[in-house]
Amino acid sequence: MVLSNMSHVLSSISNEEVSPVTLNDHWSRLARLILLASMSAVGSVGNVFMMSAVMIEDYLRKRGNTFLVNVGLADLLVTGLVIPASAIVILAGLKDNLAVCKFQWFIAAWCFLVTVLSLTAIAWENYFRLCYSIDVYHKLTKRKITFLLLSIWTTCGCISGMQFYAELSFDYCTRNDLGLIPYQATVCAIFVFFPLSVTLFCYIRTGYQVRKFKSRPNHKAPITFSWDCALAQTNMYSFVTFLLFWVPFGVILAIDNVNKVSGKVFYNLAWLAISKSCINSILYGMLNRHFRGAYVNLFQYCCCKTTVSFSRRQRPEGLRPSGDVRVHIIPGYNMYCSPQRANESGGRSKRFTERCSSARANGREVYEL
């Protein structure tokens, strides 16, 4: 009986124009495998770079940017688990697999809810960072952030798991018409529409306050404030991109509960929404200079095998030293070496003069401390 039900379900999946697991059957296996492998590789590397950038870049090492890392982690689960699962099914020569499909939809729904709540937290954090005093911002302690992140992952995991365990929501794999039941409507209202509305309100309010602050006469904002505004703008673009990728699938999902749509449109929009996890890190690298600089350092360190120094000093651009500074910890070299120092020494030490000459090698002034 169980085998007959399973075969019936698999046959219903196979009748769709586009498979929820292996994409369009009209494409060759090699083309689908290359596409999925490329999406997984590019997305996974990009998400790892995005999370690492917050750790190595001084400006990005702020407690509020932990929510950015949380979005990158959710995207990494999609690019590292959901997409490769389809590639494995294609390599195995299978058309569809119900267990793999349910696993993919569980992870995708889980990460979708985590991303929605994390985007709301990012917008809320940007609003308090730009529009309130530093004392108010410091109330966002590490303990509060940790508790909030654990609550987000636990709550979203329970919501995503209940729809499969108790069949309380729409079945993505079989597309069984369960109608708009109270559980599904409640989840959409509380964990999707309300957080997205709060996120939109926070960005609109932040933009209004920042423009009002900059319009003051004789106002000159510090460089860190400009960096915060640029990062908030990048976060807003990431939020808009998330809407552009997921709203079409959400609309089709709502329409499908009333009037059945074709599987080709349904699953193509679903994969379009999932592919958002592959480009979010690229978006931050293109629009934000600090992420872009961190990406370059990470690429040089990981791929080019060169020595890269990750700066730990926070200095404005105009205050950085123009020459090289090298520090020697050898006791015999604990001295300042400059042309003036060499002239003052006179004939005291020939070795001191030789050290000063070698320090000015290659046409650059190098001060040895």
Please give the alpha-carbon distance between the first and last residues. Answer: 82 Å
The overall number of domains is: 2
User: What's the tally of helices?
Assistant: 13
Instruction: Note the run of SSEs as H and E.
Output: HEEHHHHHHHHHHEHHE
Query: Portion of residues in helices?
Result: 55-70%
CATH architecture of the largest domain: Up-down Bundle
Quantity of strands, as a count: 4
Radius of gyration: 27 Å
Determine the strand fraction and express it as a percent band. under 5%
- Overall residue-averaged pLDDT value: 80
Spatial arrangement of strands, main beta sheet: 1-2
Structural class: mainly alpha
Judging from the principal axes of the Cα atoms, what is the shape? globular
CATH topology of the largest domain: Rhopdopsin 7-helix transmembrane proteins
CATH C-level category of the largest domain: Mainly Alpha
Would you mind describing this structure in some detail?
With 369 residues, the chain is mainly α. The strands form two sheets. A two-stranded antiparallel sheet has the order 1-2. A two-stranded parallel ribbon has the order 3-4. The radius of gyration is 27 Å and the shape is globular. The protein folds into two domains: 17-302, Rhodopsin 7-helix transmembrane proteins (Rhopdopsin 7-helix transmembrane proteins, Up-down Bundle); 325-368, no CATH class. It starts with a helix and ends with a strand. It is built from 13 helices and four strands. It has helices at residues 2-14, 29-56, 66-91, 98-131, 134-137, 142-165, 182-214, 223-256, 263-274, 276-287, 289-302, 339-345, 350-359, and strands spanning 18-19, 23-24, 324-326, 366-368.
